[in-house]
Amino acid sequence: MADPSPKHLSILRSVGHVKLLARLQKYISVSLDGCWNWTGKNVNHGGYGRTMLRGKKVLAHRISYFLAHDCLPLNGELDHLCRNRLCVNPKHLELVSRRMNLLRGNSPVGISSRKTNCNNGHPLIQRPGSPQRHCQICVTTQQRERRARLRELGIKREHTERRTTSSDVGL
How far from the centroid of its chain's Cα atoms is residue 123's Cα? Predict the structure, then answer.
């Protein structure tokens, strides 16, 4: 998805700002919401605009970021704050970590991370030291229903043997 190689940085610098700007402007359409939409026909599988520079495919929003900041992020990703992958407006791009980019996005991981309640409306809780969140009310209900089904089938729950403590043996 991203092209963080130092080779791309040297290609961008060798082409020069004026030529890069001319190349970029040729394929930009400004929308009412402030996005600079990439109109070039070269779009990668993820929906990001790209162009060829010296025989290398370079993502258009990274060229825009380079022109605005005179650097190319090697550690991190550019997050489209507008959520429009074709946007190359450098004001809509922010350098963030991969994790932050995923959590902010519209992928299942991002959507799930923003949930505060389960599908039944109960609050999600997180146990200390555990990365997962769950609904204690739903878990308790599911456990009760499972035990009831087992009782109906005549299956007894196997109990684990209780540990012997010093108070059990009279010490």
Answer: 23
What's the confidence (pLDDT) of residue 36?
Answer: 92
46-88 pLDDT tens trace: 889 988 887 888 888 988 888 888 877 778 889 999 999 999 9
The proportion of the chain whose per-residue pLDDT surpasses 90, expressed as a percent, equals 33
**DSSP string covering the chain:** -----HHHHHHHHHH-HHHHHHHHHHTEEE-TTS-EEE-SS-B-TTS-BEEEETTEEEEHHHHHHHHHHS---SSSEEEETT--TTB--GGGEEEE-HHHHHHHSSSHHHHHHT--B-TTSPBPEE-TT-S-EE-HHHHHHHHHHHHHHHHHTTPPPPPPPPPP-TTTTT-
